[in-house]
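Attaching the record inline, Q. Sequence:
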Amino acid sequence: MNQLRTDVAIIGAGTAGMSAYRAVKTAGLDAILIEGGPYGTTCARVGCMPSKLLIAAADAAHTAATAAPFGVHVEGVRIDGEQVMDRVRRERDRFVGFVLESVEGIPADDKVRGYARFVSDTVLHVDDHTEIQATRVVIATGTSPVVPDIYAALGDRAIVNDDVFNWQTLPRSVLVVGSGVIGLEIGQALSRLGVRTCLINRSSSLGGLADPEVKASAAAAFEQELDLRLDSQVLGAHREGDQVQVRLQRKGQAETTEHFEYVLVATGRHPNLSGLGLQNTKAALDERGMPEYDAETLQLGDTPIFIAGDVNSILPLLHEAADDGHIAGGNAAVWPKVVPGKRRTPMAVVFTDPQLAWVGTRYKELASAGVVCGQVSFANQGRSRVMLKNQGMLRVYARVSDGRFLGAEMAGPAMEHIAHLLAWAHQSQLTIAQMIQMPFYHPVVEEGLRTALRQAARHLAEAELDYVRECEQAVNNV
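Structure, as predicted:
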């Protein structure tokens, strides 16, 4: 077995692993990057980039098919599934190529191909060909789709999002199981591209939204064009040739039997930890085999092991994985004198129509008292009506004690841009009053944000007045 020594061994060459590698090398230490699968990040190969390519094609088709209300009549819209998927694959491969160029730029001595397994805290075996002795290790192995046992017998008729982007053409029908980010984005895109699509979810959750009013506005918008069945479940599924027969039931309704070409399983992802041999380390593991770690330093207990990116389940987003890698790699470089990593304001965007997003403190994380809300419906917002994108709602949250902006959840047009503005405001610790003083052009969707901020400001003023009255009443009662 080949013997190697290094300062830091990094398991996984995705976004977090590459970021960790750069942090270690910047610190002047040696590092070895270990990868068993294909090079290229989850985002580039099967995640954010190919999904946006599919969504872009779907949006083009939807715009052409729904132009009549503007007085623009497009006749004979034809969707060529082969051309759609050809562009998705070509552009996807182009994005992957950029990642591969970065990997190729890493010295050959810093890369080892194969799957790593811990022998101890600082000794790794890579397949059966290499032993690596390191003084510290970064785990950046990412996640894989979860496929429940109920779909095991469906063979290639049960697919995950990874499989969609290798299609040669579009299918006739798909059942999408799961209304999270992946299910919603791909489900709506397929539907707009002429695929008979049913999107089902066991609970009422939708795209990660927590605010019930924002979620209700989003559900109402999606239900206008999608066969969306929340609070529903798959009772059974079996293959019939190239079709899948599924038994479905919505809560409080009778069971139905339907047929689809594919079942797209989008019920979540699990961390890639099996086979790592973490039981051979001093890390404490829970009943699922997940190691306990410090969310600020990303260190596993007092071991010289760190965990970064999607695998740690903090926020499975590319920019968060990059930050994680920087924190884990930086702390591995200075171990044992680790320090808490600097975090940016959290935010997430779902690229559906309407777009969904959240920033800062989520609705479910707000304290029950001492917080006010301001909101706007996009139904009658000027620019939104001009574009016929007048669906959804935005709600901002503020702290009564100092008027500081805490966070927001939203469903509406161009929320990817609103979310960035609000993330910058949150990270700058602005108050609602300060945000209202910022410039707002006319006519733009951002004017809707100003409406919500103004309402929050009124509620803050009312809360302050109530507090003054309570104090005066307390004095009078003395």
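The first strand starts at residue 2 and ends at 11. The chain has three domains: 2-144+270-334, 149-267, 347-468.

More tomorrow.
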